[in-house]
Amino acid sequence: MLAPFCMSVNISEYTKKRKDCESMSIFTGAGVALVTPMKEDLSVNYEKLEEILEYQISHGTDAIIICGTTGEASTLSDEEHLECIRFAVEVVKKRIPVIAGTGSNCTDSAIYLSKEAQKYGVDGLLLVTPYYNKATQNGLKAHYQKIASNVSVPIILYNVPSRTGTKIAPQTVVDLCREVPNIVGVKDATGDISEVAQVMSLSDGAVDLYSGNDDQITAVMSLGGKGVISVLSNVLPQQTHDIVASYMAGDVEKSRELQLKYFELIQALFCEVNPIPVKEAMNRMGMNVGGLRLPLTQMEPANAQRLCDAMKRAGIEIQ
Fold first, then answer.
1. Crossing angle, helix 78-92 and helix 107-120, to 10 degrees?
2. Cis preceding linkage at 275, omega within 30
3. Structural contact between residues 205 and 225, judged by C-beta atoms closer than 8 angstroms
4. Is 187 an annotated catalytic residue?
5. Is the previous residue joined to 295 through a cis bond, with omega within 30 degrees of 0?
6. 72: left (phi over 0), alpha (psi -120 to 50) or beta
7. How confident is the model at residue 8 (pLDDT cuts 50, 70, 90)?
8. Do 273 and 296 touch, CB atoms closer than 8 A?
9. In the predicted structure, residue 22 carries a pLDDT above the cut 80
10. Annotated catalytic residue: which of 14, 48, 144, 187?
11. Omega into 277 within 30° of 0, i.e. cis?
12. Residue 65 backbone dihedrals phi, psi, to 5 degrees
């Protein structure tokens, strides 16, 4: 078992380190894109949320990402969204970094959520690109610059065009990270390894890049990535951490071996739209994280069977 090696940083320290050309990140390793557990009536189950937070910390996860796509943030009210963030910070107690998803297609809404999250003591923010609006690259720059000017905690951009219909161009990513002191990196969920290479080629160390795809962790690390923001970590936190930690420790073969070992499971976890399969998997493991809010629905039986088969082959016990 490889030890955790995450770090949480103050933005003034972070900026100074960057100016000195030293390496420092909000976290390095595997951050879990955490699900939001629900009760039978689909209200947020905070007792269960505390349980899965403790499970993640005790099983090697390097950072908590709360209220992202996997956390069903799009169907949480602002009050629920902020309470989940506040609760996570309170439970985690700075043992590992907590990064809050506070993005929106409305810049003012993103500013509000981000400012409130900062008050609660989060270690960073994850800001998805505006969706539906389809902003230009200049619009994306203005959006992110405006949010960043209203907070002081580090910000990770979230580039997921399959969800939002908008892609942050590599040069835009690099420009934002170079020009805005508290924009420090990007979660790349484009699925395009050539785009990752382009960002890293242009950035000259100015961008902390995290894989947003569990099937590309080792590949992204080979191009200079800092780790992953992971769905897989919900069910295999230690193993996902070890994919990154092995690579960082110089054991590329071990990282590759683990990446390929869990490839089938990763594919099954995305055979329907996330977080449908991962909640199904966690419930099959006895974690009882509840159902999904519409318009998300339960898995189709054939896909659920595919998922269960992949879980068994990955060595996961099903109840």
1. 30
2. yes
3. no
4. yes
5. yes
6. left
7. very low
8. yes
9. no
10. 187
11. no
12. -110, 110
Q: Tokens 């069977």 identify what position?
A: 305
Q: Contact, 214 vs 256, CB < 8 A? A: no
Q: Is the dihedral of CA 280, 282, 288, 291 positive or negative?
A: negative
CA distance 74 to 160: 15
pLDDT exceeding 90 applies to what percent of the chain?
A: 92
Q: Choosing from 158, 210, 247, 262, which is the catalytic residue?
A: 158
Using alpha carbons, select from 103, 111, 108 the residue that is nearest to residue 151: 111
Encoded tokens for 166: 């908008």
Contact present, 186 and 151 (Cβ < 8 Å): no
Plot region of 94 (φ>0 → left; ψ -120 to 50 → alpha; else → beta): left
Question: How many of the other CB atoms lie within 10 Å of CB of 216?
Answer: 23
Write the DSSP assignment of 22-87 as a string of letters. Answer: ----S--EEEEE----B-TTS-B-HHHHHHHHHHHHHTT--EEEESSTTTTGGGS-HHHHHHHHHH
Q: How far apart are CA 96 and CA 135, in angstroms?
A: 34
Neighbours of 251 (CB within 10 A): 15
Q: Which residue has the tokens 């951009």?
A: 157
16 labelled catalytic: no
And the tokens for 271? 């055979």
Give the per-residue pLDDT at 157. 98
CA distance 123 to 310: 35
Instruction: Flag whether the pTM goes above 0.90.
Output: yes
Three-state helix/strand/coil letters over 84-108: HHHHHHHHHCCCCCEEEECCCCCHH
